[in-house]
Amino acid sequence: MSLQIEDPRIVEFDVQTDEMLVNMGPQHPSTHGVLRLLLRTDGEIVHECTPHIGYLHRCAEKIGENLSPPQYIPYTDRMDYLAAMNMNLGFALAVEKLIGMEVPEKAVHLRVLIAEIGRIASHLVGMGTYGLDLGTFSPFLYAFREREIILDLFEEVCGARLTYSYITIGGATHDLPDEIEMPDGLASLIGKHKGERLPFLDVIEIFLQWLELRIREYHTLLTKNMIFISRTAGLGILSPEMAVSYGCTGPVLRGSGVNFDLRRDGEAIYTRMYKGYDFEVPVAPFKEAPREVIVGDNWCRFYVRMMEVVQAIRLVRQAIPKYKAATGSYREPFKMNTKLPKDEVYLETEAPRGQMGFYVVGNGEGNPLRLRAKSSCFCNVSVTDQICQGVPLADIPAIVGSLDIVMGEIDR
Amino acid sequence: MDIQGIHSILLERFGESVVGSQTFKAIDPWIQVSAASIVEVCTFLRDDSRLLFNHLNDLCGVDYFEPDAKKAAKFGHEPHVEVVYHLSSLKQRHQLKLKVVVPRWKDNVEGQLPVVPSLSAVFGIANWHEREAYDLMGIHFEGHPNLRRILCPEDWIGHPMRKDYAFPLEYHGVRGR
């Protein structure tokens, strides 16, 4: 009697005794949340890396079918909780596109200002935790010190520190505050007295001036650090063709040398916001890159984020006078009993981690028939298997960390 | 290129049996494509030098169904499931929405998932998007290399984004309601 084997690969796996399945996550500190990677390793070398997601799944899309758009705004906060302002903005713009709402000029500049500060905060976390992944603790502390001040400022704006629900359909829930007490963290850093009251926009300018000088320190700590370069340069190379095919967006796409940014190349309703603003889109290759760097590697993805912080500072600086000069209200009222028309829209916006898309199908009722949130990190993490083949086990956190994923957004 | 231009190119290449109705008046105009030829159409859209749709932004399913019998008369859609493809071109800077319409259940037998060919050979990301659409919407993508649940647990029953989905009362000893 001959033995029947259903799957011959199982036997092959059994015979090669040195191959091992290693389960990394979901509670591994360097997987940025609850990502589980199943690694098939041969000694130190990883042959296959299968991401398993869904540990944070809340079916936010189903919830969206039972809520009206303004009620859904807080759920968008909980998607990418490190850049909640940008998530609010993406959803608000999608609904505005559906109902054909025009946003007042003041609200537009307010949104640019807030969204770009949110981008700075998000990239600071990306930078700090990437250092943590690679084993250096100090950049994380510096990054969180700076982010803390941004959270203080956002707290003055809307009262919340993480899940803001500030940018809403038609504009924002409140206008920016006129005068605030200088945040304690900022006051002690620049050597001012605590409790001084200053105009809000002046405090932002003080903060930006201070942050700008710190960026050089980050470059010394990480970007130009020899250990950092040898851990990141030439590793996890993502070719531009693969990046496009796998739907990678944001810094991951631009790190691979594809010049595409929705703030410049997106749909009219989104690019109109950034009309009149002068900014550059950082794209690999970089002149100042070390010799070892190859386009599309970890270092390029990291450096794109660092350069985007510089551009975001520029954008905030330009937004301040525009906001001051703008006329109109901070918000176009959205009636709670608005019926969504029988139409459907899809709109992508440039969130810090990539292109976040919202697809809203209306059916003549207050609640949408279908609400789809296309996550940028979902696409970015799907490429892990392709770029993690044949690398040592110790480089897996370096590669996954460079994609800068947030599990709340992937699992939704 | 605008939607009319893309539509006439597709019509010229594939004929009316493949390229179905379209709506140019909608905010985001779309073109309907027959399920059997979606792979062929997308490969053409990706490779044609005038179009170059190299980026699949999104792929999702929409369930047109009203479970409440009282509201069903006002609903205004025949019950069906749509697979919506959002394509864009990073080079030509244009975008396109394709739709594939399939019945809610294959052969109208409840529980038999409708079948749509898989795009995973054309776009790398289609692999995960189709797994998600299978998991949440219950669409079987034929030719998919690894059609497993992606967000829900492997032993989950049903497809949560279907309009007539019944929430489970219990899952491994955890009470649902």
Short description:
Chain A is α+β, with helices and mostly antiparallel strands. The longest helix of chain A has 30 residues. By secondary structure, chain B is α/β, with parallel strands linked by helices.
Q: Helicity of chain A, in percent? A: 40-55%
Number of strands of chain B: 9
Q: How many helix segments of chain A?
A: 18
Rg calculated over all Cα atoms of chain A: 23 Å
Q: Under the CATH scheme, which class of chain B? A: Alpha Beta
Largest sheet of chain B: 5 strands, mixed
Let me know the average pLDDT of chain B: 85
Strands ordered across the widest β-sheet of chain A: 1-2-3-11
CATH architectural designation of chain B: 2-Layer Sandwich
Rg over C-alpha atoms of chain B, rounded to the nearest angstrom:
18 Å
CATH superfamily of chain A: Cytochrome-c3 Hydrogenase, chain B
Detailed description of the structure:
The complex is a heterodimer of chains A (412) and B (177). With 412 residues, chain A is α+β, with helices and mostly antiparallel strands. Chain A has a single domain (18-411), classed as Cytochrome-c3 Hydrogenase, chain B, CATH 1.10.645. Helices cover 48% and strands 13% of the residues of chain A. Chain A contains 18 helices and eleven strands. Chain A has a four-stranded antiparallel sheet with strand order 1-2-3-11. In chain A, strands 8-9-10 form a three-stranded antiparallel sheet. In chain A, strands 4-5 form a two-stranded antiparallel sheet. In chain A, β9 (354-361) and β10 form a beta hairpin. The N and C termini of chain A lie far apart (52 Å). The model of chain A has no long low-confidence stretch (mean pLDDT 87). With 177 residues, chain B is α/β, with parallel strands linked by helices. In chain B, 23% of the residues lie in helices and 26% in strands. A five-stranded mixed sheet of chain B has the order 1-2-5-4-3, with helices on one face. A two-stranded parallel ribbon of chain B has the order 6-7. In chain B, β6, α4 (126-137) and β7 (140-142) form a beta-alpha-beta unit. Chain B is globular, with a radius of gyration of 18 Å. The termini of chain B are far apart.
